[in-house]
Amino acid sequence: MTPIQPWLNGPLENRGGKLYFDGVSAEELAEAFDTPLYVTSESRIRDNYRNLHKALTRNYEKIRVYYAAKANSNLSVLKTLETEGAYLDAVSPGEVFMALTTGFTPERILFTGTSVRNDELKFLADSDITVNADSLSQLDRLLKIKVPEVLSVRVNPEIGAGHHDHCITAGENTKFGLWESDAVNAYKKAKDSGVERFGIHMHVGSGVLDVDPFVLALDKLLSVAKRVHDEAGVSFEFVDMGGGIGVPYKPEDKPVDLVAFSEKVLSLFKNRVEEYDLGEPFFCVEPGRYLVCDASILLTRVNTVKVTPFKRFVGVDAGFNTLVRPTMYGSHHHVLVASKLDSPEEETYDVAGPVCESGDLLARDRRLPNVDEGDLLAVLNAGAYGYAMSSQYNARPRAAEVMVKDGKCAVIRKRETLDDLLSGQRVAE
Ligand code: LLP
């Protein structure tokens, strides 16, 4: 067994030039379950959760890790994290429903939605889910429906970060959260209405490999917490610094050093909590990507090799209907030819899907071994915002998902069929 590349680790293995994922042959998986196929390593999710939890609890005892279910809401993924003791961040009634179905109790679920409807607020109130208010409008409507026992407010910490403009969720241009003075008023209003227990929340953005934005934003969040504490007499049961921890997608990306991250973030947290007399709140994080991204690969079969005067295209059966990130954000996902791991990279290819749009490229100008029709490609780091953002665009049924562990595998979502394309539809009379 040789490592595939020094920067790639975890469940990926090179056995005699062939790709194995958590002990299972990629080629055998593709033959057994067809492609496109999402393959998820249960152990990798557990390892990621434990590494993060351990790094944080080294520096502070009262830690909660909320899994941001939007990254991957497959029931088996949710169950894996439920059994690890994770909490859960939901952004829609659907995610709350999935989490409750998996076995997360309401106390372990936090709802951080935006543009939330009244019937959705009622569902949350009836289900005893703690809500992170995203606007004064939402708070007023929630208080009219039911005064909750616990309430949190999403604060805009005025510092945002993220791998793409679409994924920066704090600062001047974002629709999310409340600015400082509105946040102070929100807590006053909630307290006057009878809410007794409180949390405070922020989320700077997604795909952040640098620790500094988290530290700067957390500092701002805690200064808002102090103002709320002083002016509204509120004490906090939890301080939630949101998600956003990035992962390396490109060979040159450096992973976040979790030990250094934990030390920097939590030393600031502990100092400010003491200085501002904020008691002993839980410190919460809300990672999606970090927990599940490198736990899945996407297998896709080459059907076409096409050479034009300008480009060499590899045509595969997964397009942006299956994995939208490269098209939507220009994201880089590393691609391996699953049976040619020991072959030299000889050609430059664009990897194109079956969607009828020119933007349907999983990879551009990528150096790969010589690719032939019938080769199997593995698209790495597909566990976060992969299946979750897939669609039936071009009337293509969605992919199947399998979970692997120590050489064994199980289907965790069956492939959609043509009949699924008709689901819920009827021809108008
Ligand atoms: N908490 C809140 C309130 C969020 O809005 C998000 C992500 C997270 C936590 C988790 O962030 P993470 O740890 O996964 O970075 N579709 C994009 C990412 C959008 C993230 C939206 N919010 C992508 O594929 O990169």
Can you put this structure into words, describing what you see?
The chain is 30% helix and 24% strand. It has 429 residues and is an alpha/beta fold. The strands form three sheets. Strands 4, 13, 14, 15, 16, 17, 18, 19 and 20 form a nine-stranded mixed beta sheet that branches. Helix 3 crosses helix 4 (93-102) and helix 5 crosses helix 6. The protein is globular, with a radius of gyration of 23 Å. Residues 68, 70-71, 89, 112, 167, 169, 203, 206-207, 242-245, 286-290, 325, 329, 384-385 line the site of ligand LLP.
Short description:
This protein is of the alpha/beta class and 429 residues long.
Derived from helix and strand composition plus strand pairing, the structural class reads: alpha/beta
CATH homologous superfamily placement of the largest domain: Alanine racemase
Bound molecules: ligand LLP
Overall mean pLDDT: 96
- Please give the radius of gyration in angstroms: 23 Å
Runs in which pLDDT lies below 50 for 5 or more consecutive residues are none
What name does CATH use for the topology of the largest domain? TIM Barrel
The largest β sheet comes out as: 9 strands, mixed
Number of separate domains: 2
Question: How many DSSP E strands?
Answer: 20
Query: How much strand?
Result: 15-25%
What does the overall shape look like? Answer: globular
Instruction: Compute the number of helices.
Output: 12
Could you say what the CATH architecture of the largest domain is? Answer: Alpha-Beta Barrel
**Under the CATH scheme, which class of the largest domain?**
Alpha Beta
